[in-house]
Amino acid sequence: MKKIILCFNKTKKELNKIIVIIISILLVSCINPFAPSLSDAETDGLGDLKTIDGFFQTFQYAYNMKDTIIYSNLLSADFVFAYRDYEKGINLTLTREEDMITTYRLFSAAQKLDFIWNAIIINDGSEIERNILRSFSLTITFPNDIPIYIKGNAYFILKRGDENENWKLSYWRDDSYY
């Protein structure tokens, strides 16, 4: 009887080892069982960044979903944002880092963003650099439910190393009004 109990304990220990190994493999695998998966609806807004239309589609998606990671992937390392400070009567610029901080604050503060691209006014350049002037409208709703409506034009310079690379935004001049 003693031999049977020892044998049973040994198989129970082996079974526990196998369970621990299986759990360990699951925990270190590429699939995180605790992370929610992206639905098709959540990724439908992403465009092909090798096309101008895909770039603008992804830009709109990043704003509407308030996704700073996608937005940051659209900007080149030397990105510059230019705008007019009408109160001071001067033109100002932001570096990529300053723009990312400002955009993060906007995305965090807004309850909802509704960004819509309108007509392309200018689309000029080559297969590796495009100058695009496009109208847009943006509605920002803050938690107090008071929306702010912004309309205007965005002058973009998009660049890429060659025709097989993704377009990156290197310059954005915001010509918007409230």
Write the layout of secondary structure elements.
Elements: H1 2-28, H2 40-43, H3 52-64, H4 68-74, E1 75-85, E2 90-95, H5 96-109, E3 112-125, E4 129-141, E5 147-159, E6 168-177
Parallel strand pairs: 1-6
Antiparallel strand pairs: 1-2, 3-4, 4-5, 5-6
- The tally of helices reads 5
The average pLDDT is 85
What is the string of SSEs from the N terminus onward? HHHHEEHEEEE
Q: Stretches where pLDDT falls below 50 for ≥5 residues?
A: 1-8, 26-30, 34-43
Q: Per CATH, what is the topology of the largest domain?
A: Nuclear Transport Factor 2, Chain: A
Give the number of DSSP strands: 6
User: Biggest sheet: strands, sense, closure?
Assistant: 6 strands, mixed
What radius of gyration results from the CA coordinates?
25 Å
Distance between the termini: 87 Å
Q: Can you tell me the number of structural domains?
A: 2
Strand content: 35-45%
CATH architecture of the largest domain: Roll
The level 1 CATH classification of the largest domain is Alpha Beta
Based on helices, strands and strand pairing, what is the structural class?
Answer: alpha+beta
Helix content: 25-40%
Widest beta sheet: strand line-up: 2-1-6-5-4-3
What general outline do the C-alpha atoms trace? globular
Can you describe this structure in just a few lines?
This protein is of the alpha+beta class and 178 residues long. Helix content is 37%, strand content 38%. Strand 1 and strand 2 form a beta hairpin.
